[in-house]
Write a structure and sequence with these properties.
The protein is mainly alpha-helical and 122 residues long. It has helices at 9-24, 41-50, 57-70, 74-79, 86-93, 96-118.
Length: 122
């Protein structure tokens, strides 16, 4: 049976919350803004998660890497305590802790399925 890559409701809600907070924030407090002033990858990730459509393995890999970078720091975790902070906005846009756990679990399942297929078992 194929692995579902449709984000769970809680992950979709977290992504929506991150973008909602961002939209209500003044320009100086908006997270996920690139150097060119345009939305960064986090905004597009949130929109993909919110869509309720299957996401790609590549995006799951990116999510796992993003959480590995942004979850490792005590300072990042401390910054997220302020629910209006850029750190909190971004963390939620990527799905929050639920998104982190879902992305890791789903990616592991996909990779296990790929190994089974390459070994000729189903």
């Amino acid at each position: 049976m194929p692995v579902s890559t449709i984000p769970p409701v809680k992950v979709r809600r977290n992504a929506q919350l991150g973008l909602d907070i961002r939209s209500k924030s003044p320009k100086s407090r908006k997270a996920m803004v690139g150097e060119d002033g345009k939305p960064s990858k986090g905004v597009f990730t949130a929109r993909s998660l919110m869509s309720g459509k299957p996401i790609s393995k590549e995006l799951l890999v990116t999510m796992v890497a993003w959480f590995a970078r942004h979850d490792a720091s005590d300072m990042e975790r401390e910054n997220r305590k302020d629910r209006t902070s850029k750190a909190f906005q971004a963390y939620m846009a990527w799905g929050g802790a639920d998104g982190r756990d879902w992305a890791k679990r789903t990616l592991r399942r996909i990779e296990a399925e790929e190994r089974r297929r390459s070994n000729g078992t189903s």
